[in-house]
């Protein structure tokens, strides 16, 4: 090719179309270190808000939230779709119906007991020998179930004369399979507290922890009534030993079992058991009903660890809220940052006690007063009426869930 007289361009740039015009200056950019090169990621997906409270599972079925509760419409749709009669679960070992013992993450822990004469409002008081334990876990919305095997004799035989005093579903982690679950049974005899755990991944029971108690000078509870304080969010199980001012604490993540001395366990009376919710710093806060002004137990007291106190066992008392005085209240349980209460109007309560409700022939449902069930958000201190029933229950199991299109099978 003939030389046109134009100087050869540098690099791979083509010759300029107009030789007299200035060439644009090209600047080389410095290369970033390899670890500075990050791929473009899509924006993070919004986190789902905590599931709303839909209602209570009790021994006689599911009781959905009712208007004007904000979850009433969602709760009604859920109640219509789910089966809380547990008719899809095969009959248990005993000639008694399945009863709920705990609710967690869409699952219901069921028990079939050998005591048909127990009234439903009081049967959770009773403890049973481990050899009589008959359990199942079910998903009432998708009608799936898993029958748990009995605790093997060679395992329970390591500790003699054990009775259970606490049954609950342990929380599962986000990295676990969506259908995996764990069941924990707390059992004891006069000298030892033993933890039994069932895992769906292995299909077997084992003993992850036990604690000798004879040297501590305490006698373990013989009733489930003293052990209904769970904090599932932080993965802890609390048993309040009222007579000895102690807390039995099980960390279900690490399976550490310990006994903590405190001055709050003694606040237990006719208005129900103390309730435990973990505070923001992770320490347990105890709530109980008190009568500060002589108008009935309508004041919710909170007891927290005293910061900077001279004694490690110093606790701070605080009246967080005074409830409407026209009701007589009873504490039922606590979970997910909520306290749950039972209330009955004082004029209706005259001459009628919860003990009377154990005799079904004495009071027909038409004659029974309305029993109102409340939730109290500990953070906002806002009480809300969840539903009205005709039955007295000494414990109920709160059910939290998402709208039906967002719900997946849990078993």
Automatic annotation (TrEMBL):
Residues 1-24 are annotated as: Disordered. It comes from the Eukaryota. Residues 104-261 form the F-box protein AT5G49610-like beta-propeller domain. Pfam families: Beta-prop_AT5G49610-like. InterPro entries: AT5G49610-like_b-prop. PANTHER family: OS07G0554500 PROTEIN-RELATED, OS07G0555100 PROTEIN. This is F-box protein AT5G49610-like beta-propeller domain-containing protein. It comes from Digitaria exilis.
């Amino acid at each position: 090719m003939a030389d046109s007289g134009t100087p050869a361009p540098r690099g791979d740039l083509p010759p300029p179309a107009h030789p007299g015009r200035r060439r644009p200056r090209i600047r080389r950019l410095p290369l970033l270190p390899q670890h500075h090169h990050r791929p473009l990621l899509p924006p993070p997906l919004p986190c789902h808000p905590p599931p709303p409270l839909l209602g209570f599972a009790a021994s006689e079925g599911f009781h959905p939230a009712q208007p004007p509760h904000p979850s009433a419409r969602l709760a009604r749709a859920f109640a219509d779709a789910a089966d809380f009669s547990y008719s899809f679960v095969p009959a248990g070992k005993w000639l008694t119906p399945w009863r709920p013992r705990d609710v967690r993450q869409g699952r219901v822990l069921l028990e079939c007991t050998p005591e048909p004469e127990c009234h439903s409002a009081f049967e959770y008081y009773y403890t049973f020998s481990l050899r009589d334990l008959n359990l199942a876990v079910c998903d009432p919305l998708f009608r799936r179930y898993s029958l748990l095997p009995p605790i093997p004799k060679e395992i329970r035989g390591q500790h003699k004369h054990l009775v259970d005093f606490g049954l609950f579903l342990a929380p599962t982690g986000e990295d676990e399979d969506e259908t995996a679950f764990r069941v924990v049974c707390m059992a004891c005899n006069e000298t030892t507290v033993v933890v039994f755990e069932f895992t769906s991944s292995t299909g077997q029971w084992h003993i992850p922890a036990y604690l000798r108690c004879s040297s501590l000078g305490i006698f373990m509870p013989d009733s489930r009534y003293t052990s209904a304080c769970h904090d599932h969010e932080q993965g802890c199980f609390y048993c309040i030993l009222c007579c000895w001012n102690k807390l039995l604490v099980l960390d279900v993540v690490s399976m550490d079992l310990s006994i903590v001395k405190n001055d709050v366990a003694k606040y237990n009376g006719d208005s129900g058991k103390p309730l435990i919710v973990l505070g923001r710093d992770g320490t347990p806060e105890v709530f109980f009903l008190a009568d500060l002004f002589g108008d009935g137990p309508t004041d919710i007291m909170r007891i927290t660890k005293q910061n900077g106190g001279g004694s490690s066992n110093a606790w701070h008392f605080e009246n967080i809220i005074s409830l409407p005085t026209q009701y007589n209240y009873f504490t039922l349980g606590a979970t997910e940052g909520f306290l749950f209460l039972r209330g009955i109007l004082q004029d209706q309560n005259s001459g009628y006690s919860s003990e009377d409700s154990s005799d079904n022939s004495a009071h027909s449902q038409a004659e029974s007063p309305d029993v109102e069930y409340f939730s109290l958000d500990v953070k906002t201190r806002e009480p809300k009426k969840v539903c009205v029933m005709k039955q007295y229950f000494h414990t109920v199991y709160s059910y939290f869930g998402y709208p039906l299109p967002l719900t997946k099978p849990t078993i």
